[in-house]
Amino acid sequence: MRNGTRWPVCIVVALTAALLLCSVTTSGAGLRLEIESGYVGSGYNDVRIPGDTGTDISLNDDLSTDAAPYFRARVEYDLGERHTVSALYAPLTLSADGTLAGPVDFAGVTYPGGTDVDGTYTFNSYRLTYRYALVRGDRFSAGIGFTGKIRDAVIRLEGGGLSSEKTDVGFVPLLNFKLVWTASDRVDLLLEGDALAAPQGRAEDVIAGAVFHATDNLDVRVGYRIVEGGADNDEVYTFALLNYASVGLVATF
Q1: What distance in Å separates the CA atoms of residue 196 and residue 204, rounded to the nearest whole number?
Q2: Which domains does the chain have, with CATH numbers?
Q3: DSSP 8-class letter at 17
């Protein structure tokens, strides 16, 4: 693990431990563990590094990016009826390969045209979220809140005896929302996500799906997740669209 990733992981671990402790010492509140997996494919992935002088390259069109399995986990805790806090760990790495049609200047290194290259796109996310329930009805509920996100990103090219990469660890504030409609005693419809746009860039992570209540303490969730966004500045231009086929389990304690 790189030094830049250790402290975000420590934050998630610390919050998880705190939530577990709360579940033991506090009555009348719920603790949930969500495990999500499936396959993720890239809709587009365009980069230019540096953002003002690098060469435009698409990891989808100029190279080829295969779909890959993914995993993410969330611990969520209800502080009474209307307040919820959660911690999310969402790692992601996609691999690309291909032959460059022309010369590419990437992160200070020039790759000649015709070079066979491998690309790596890593975008690990660590998030802490607070959400307030605006509506708590028998059939419909809605909540809104905010998320503090730590991104740990790496874009790397290597080939022809050359290699270069751009790394970035930073904080991103996001708005959080969750809408749930109860279709039947056993099925809920869900729309949930984090999103925000600003002049420096944008980020969206939204899932639409169905939640099946298998038992009183276990739900099965299936759906489609979209992650999109990026940044445009002198150091980096990068925008990606990722499509997720999602299956998850939600255990309540």
Answers
A1: 7
A2: 3-252 (2.40.128.90)
A3: H
The SS3 assignment for 14 reads helix
Report the alpha-carbon distance of residue 49 to residue 96 in Å, rounded: 17
- 149 within 8 A of 172, measured Cβ to Cβ: yes
Dihedral over alpha carbons 144, 145, 148, 152 (to 10 degrees): -10
Tally of CA atoms within 13 A in the half-sphere of 201 that contains its CB: 20
22 vs 138, residue with greater confidence: 138
Residues 176-216 pLDDT 10s: 999 999 999 999 999 999 999 988 899 999 999 999 999 99
Contacts of 59 (CB under 8 A, 6+ apart): 42, 45, 46, 47, 65, 94, 96, 119, 121
- Rounded to whole angstroms, what are the CA distances from 196 to 63, 176, 202, 213? 29, 9, 6, 31
Query: Which long-range CB contacts under 8 A does 8-11 form with residues at least 24 apart?
Result: 8/126, 8/150, 8/152, 8/169, 9/89, 9/126, 11/87, 11/126, 11/128, 11/150
Give this prediction's pTM. Answer: 0.86
Amino acid, res. 218 = L
Pick from 18-27, 43-52, 98-107: least confident: 18-27
Q: HSE of 4 in the Cβ direction (CA atoms, 13 Å)?
A: 12
pLDDT of residue 85: 97
Residue among 8, 74, 62 at smallest CA distance from 35? 74
Residue of 155, 126, 129 whose CA lies nearest to 47: 155
